[in-house]
Amino acid sequence: MSESASVVKTEPDVRVLFSPAQIAARVQEMGLEIARELDGTRPVFVSVLKGACMFQCDLARATPLDVELDFLAVASYGSAKTSSGNVRLIHDLRVDIGGRHVVVCEGVVDSGLTLSFLLDMFRVRNPASLRVATLLDKVPCRKIEVPVDYAGWKIGNEFVVGYGMDAGERFRNLPYVGVLQEA
Ligand code: PRP
User: Do residues 114 and 83 touch, judged by C-beta distance below 8 A?
Assistant: First the structure.
């Protein structure tokens, strides 16, 4: 590779909250807990793109069951750092979740508005059960009550990036979760 084509990698100014090793250990625990509760079933792990992508895939790998994966996408209009609650479905699940055990995977539950929208939509499809797993639960930020069955960690009002979560579409591929330091 020529010098001009070489990759310049700069370290982002991010304070690490949870290291890759901490995340791996916690996700492993969560996966085993879900496997115990859903033993003998073939659950569907669903996530809303894009923030939960890493968590969903790692959680599925940590769950020793025959797990099916599916994805949906929503558009949420608000500022870059907060959700407005005006959530609109732009890409639905492919799988019929009727009669299935569903685990909704989230990277972070903040106001709860996205999750509330999803759960309302899923409930009318008559799943056998509906559970929520999130890596991070920003409990103090809740605007609407939502059930969270499995939470990796409860955190405060921090704007987190990494491990799937972004700031302006950057930092999703950081292997850790951190807080972006203001310049
Ligand atoms: C994030 C996150 C959740 C949602 C939670 O998604 O992935 O889906 O916000 O916020 P809430 O509880 O206040 O609704 P975001 O809208 O940033 O899109 P992204 O997943 O594509 O990053």
Answer: yes
- The residue whose CA is least distant from atom 20 of ligand 1 is 51
Q: What is the pLDDT of residue 81?
A: 56
Residue located nearest, by CA, to atom 1 of ligand 1:
51
d(CA 75, CA 115) in angstroms, rounded, equals 13
Give the helix/strand (H/E) hosting 87.
strand 86-91
- Answer yes or no: is the C-beta of 137 below 6 A from any ligand 1 atom: no
| Phi, psi (deg, nearest 5) at residue 23 | -65, -45
Supply 24's token pair: 């791996």
Cα–chain center distance at 160: 12
Q: State which ligand 1 atom lies nearest to the alpha carbon of 111.
A: 13
Could you report the per-residue pLDDT of 54-77, keeping only the tens digit for each?
A: 999 999 999 999 999 999 999 876
Structure tokens at 96: 């019929």
The model's pTM? 0.90
Q: Which pLDDT belongs to residue 7?
A: 60
Active site residue 110: yes
Name residue 86's beta-bridge partners.
77
In angstroms, rounded to a whole number, what is the distance separating the alpha carbons of residues 28 and 73? Answer: 26
Kindly give the number of the ligand 1 atom that is closest to the alpha carbon of 164.
22
> What pLDDT score does 84 carry?
58
